[in-house]
Amino acid sequence: MSTREAGPAAGPDTGPGASLGTSPGPGPGPEAGTAAQASASAHAGAEHAGAEAGPWLDPGPFLRGVAWLDGGRPVRADPADTMRLPWDTGERATLPIGVRLEFTAPGARAVEIHYRATVPGPTDALRDLAHGFALWDRHGVVGELYTEPAAEAVVRLELPGGSGPFTIHPPETQSPLILGLRGIGGPLAPAPPATRWVVHGDSITEGWWSTRPAHGWPSVAGRALGWDTVNLGYAGAARGELACAEQIAGLPADVLTLAFGTNCWSRVPFSAPLLYETTRAFLELVRQGHPRTPLLLLSPVLRPDAERTPNKLGATLGALRDAMERATRERMAAGDERLVLLPGREVLGPEHLADGLHPNDAGHRTLGLAVATAMKRAGFGLG
Q1: Do the Cβ atoms of 49 and 211 come closer than 8 Å?
Q2: How far apart are the C-alpha atoms of 37 and 30, rounded to whole Å?
Q3: CA–CA distances in Å: residue 3 to residues 119, 162, 196
């Protein structure tokens, strides 16, 4: 998980053996200066919606960022192929990172959401973590609502003027299952479909140390591009697992981005030749399912403690990054015209890192806009 909805006080280890996503860090409460906090009438329960409440709607058509469904619950790995995945990948894939509701609301003044979520036990470090819902329009966040943890509840968020489209980011780290939604004072309709962008990476892609689900770099880039972002970021994992490449190959996508490699320095140490061959194999397997799909590969971003420090196999992060980029450039030179490389080393500076490893909100924004710019320059998603 990230610090997006406030995490426990212990931050991640940033020493040479640390990996992306081994533990969360501290997180703030609701942001100061938000465009408009959820009003006092936005509340849990919403028992008295009255005659203005529309019918409860199936959430399926409203959900975005969905990769696979497992018994109706959004998951981020193929439920028919979990046995080939490392345990840490499978565990992270159960969290609906990036899954959100998108809708238009002509005439509606509020929306209610019926959901179930995980409630930590009395000794769990997250037992007091509020359930946070953030409402966005095209211009930014327009309201936030925090409620007491509940296994099942109804929340109500007031809508600003206009018909939208609107996006609601639920408390993703509590594994919410949306059971239904309805408009108050007017109807709701699913937002129009958008370019489907599948992003694979580690805890940086999952959004660690961003303070809200909507602040992780894939969300930032997706909003800038107007795309439907599907987040396959797996904290602590994303080490070039070839089963992941085959799952991505079978997943519908209009555009793809791969952003792994940093955990190949520490969590499962790679040599530079091993990451070179892994990158070649990963790209080949993805291309078997997406031979012409636009694909951007983002090599590892700055990690100061790893850039010149050898891992257990003698590889620095700099050497691993070079190997990954070389494999990508060679495939591009061999004729893969829909493959683009974004070298990650210079995208972020030390000031963008919250803990020497994961970006802060400013870092996620910088990274997201850099990816969006690279996509636009390559002509991806433009027809």
Answers
A1: no
A2: 9
A3: 17, 32, 26
Count CB neighbours of 189 within 10 A.
17
Where are any strands of DSSP class E within 100-227?
100-104, 110-116, 131-137, 140-147, 152-158, 166-169, 177-184, 189-190, 196-201
| DSSP bridge partners of 182 | 112
Looking up tokens 């599948």, which residue turns up? Answer: 198
Distance CA 189, CA 184 (A): 13
Ranges assigned E (strand) in 211-364: 228-233, 255-259, 295-298, 339-342
User: What order of strands is seen across the sheet that includes strand 196-201?
Assistant: 228-233, 196-201, 255-259, 295-298, 339-342
**Look-up: residue for tokens 């806009």?**
369
The count of C-alpha atoms lying within 13 angstroms of the C-alpha of 42, restricted to the half-sphere facing its C-beta, is 24
Strand segments, DSSP code E, in the chain are 63-64, 68-70, 73-75, 100-104, 110-116, 131-137, 140-147, 152-158, 166-169, 177-184, 189-190, 196-201, 228-233, 255-259, 295-298, 339-342
By residue count, the chain amounts to 383
Tens digit of each residue's pLDDT (9 = 90 or more) over 145-200: 999 888 999 999 999 988 999 999 999 878 899 999 999 999 999 999 999 999 99
* 68 membership: H or E segment, kind and range: strand 68-70
pLDDT the model gives residue 118: 82
- 309/302 Cα distance (integer angstroms): 13
CB 274 within 8 A of CB 320: no
By C-alpha distance, which of 332, 334, 351, 352 is closest to 342? 332
How crowded is the C-beta side of 143, counted as CA atoms within 13 Å? Answer: 21
State both tokens at 280. 């070649």
Weakly modelled stretches of the chain, pLDDT under 50: 1-19, 21-48
Rounded to an integer, what distance in angstroms lies between the CA atom of residue 210 and that of residue 362?
A: 9
- Separation between Cα atoms, residue 79 and residue 68, nearest integer Å: 7
Going by C-beta distance under 8 Å and a sequence separation of 6 or more, which residues neighbour residue 60? none
Prediction pTM value: 0.88
